[in-house]
Amino acid sequence: MKRVCLLMAALAALMVGCGRQLAEVPEATPAPTAVVTATPTPTATPTPTPTPVLVTMAPTSVPTPVPTPTPTPTATPTPTPAPTPFSLAWVPDTQHFAYFDPQKFLTLAERINERRESDNILGVIHSGDLVDNGFKSWQWDNFDPFLENLDPSLFFFPVAGNHDIGTQAQEYYAYLPRPFLKAYPDEQKYDGGKVIYRVLSEGGEDILLLGIGWNMWMDRGAMRWTDEVLAAHQDMPCILVIHGFLLSETGYYQSVEQMIAARPTIRLVLCGHMDGYYTHVFTYDDDGDGVKERTVTAMMLNMQRAQDYAFRILTFDPLSHAVTVNTLLLDGSPAPDYPNREPISFTIENAY
Ligand SMILES: [Ca+2]
Q1: Strands 294-302 and 155-158: what pairing?
Q2: Distance, CA 249 to ligand 1 centroid (Å)?
Q3: Which residues are in the CB-under-5-Å shell of ion ligand 1?
Q4: Which of left, alpha, beta for 65 (phi over 0: left; psi -120 to 50: alpha)?
Q5: Cross-strand pairs, 125
Q6: What DSSP line would sit under 212-227, residue for residue?
Q7: Alpha-carbon dihedral angle through residues 135, 156, 273, 218, given to the nearest 10 degrees
Q8: pLDDT tens digits, one per residue of 298-345
Q9: Is 309 left (phi over 0), alpha (psi -120 to 50) or beta?
């Protein structure tokens, strides 16, 4: 019994000790919680760190070829600038405006100006008979506001028609002092402006504009000068502006045709003089191999007597070398086709 009591006393003492021990454990429990929170931090940091180091190491060994791809993109922009189509406004015979209706000059200038940006119009070609009688200064007074009202960025490229040099007199001395000819440098005109030229540099190419005044295709000095100009610009197509050439659906001045035939860079001819509109395509075998490889598209337009007049906007496509011929009336609307006639607006493929 005494041994039982002793055993129980010992057990009780042990339990008290255990109790003390248990009481101390909860105080130590916060410590492992702190350890737990500390553990993920180091494990996360070391694992990613070595991997990026290895990745970055690999490319850093190849830095020398890196500068080589840099010049490659600089080569790419070169083909990007595609040649932009451009236009020329073509104004035929305005002699009736100068004589009867000068207000129409202002309307015509306005029509051209309002399409300048959308059609990328660079200049205005006049195919002759600017006025009815070049010896009447009041008619030039009627004409001049046309140029004064054109957008100043547009160039003006005229040729003398038979009326500009006087249908009776056939003399150039009243025409040549006109300010629009004075504006041309001496080297670009023969004898003050009886023949003129200018080079169009657009769409990555050059085009020679050549204007031969009335009768000058029969003038030896004028044609000698013309041939020097053509020889100096033989690497570019030529657009000939001449007042009289096509006379009807099938007829033309043979002397002008012979002059064109002998000059292989001429590809387009713009003329006026007659009433209405005609287009002829001439073909020539310049190299004598039996194949006619050159086409010359000649266009005549003169509708000054029509109620609404008509002028054209020629749009050049530098990629296809097609020319779109857009015929417009003074009110800006497209000119209607005439019954049983070829279309008045059309596209010339392989035009220059
Ligand atoms: Ca040939």
Answers
A1: unpaired
A2: 26
A3: 285, 287, 289, 291, 293
A4: alpha
A5: 90, 157
A6: E-TTGGG-HHHHHHHH
A7: 80
A8: 999 999 888 789 999 999 999 999 999 999 999 999 999 988 999 999
A9: left
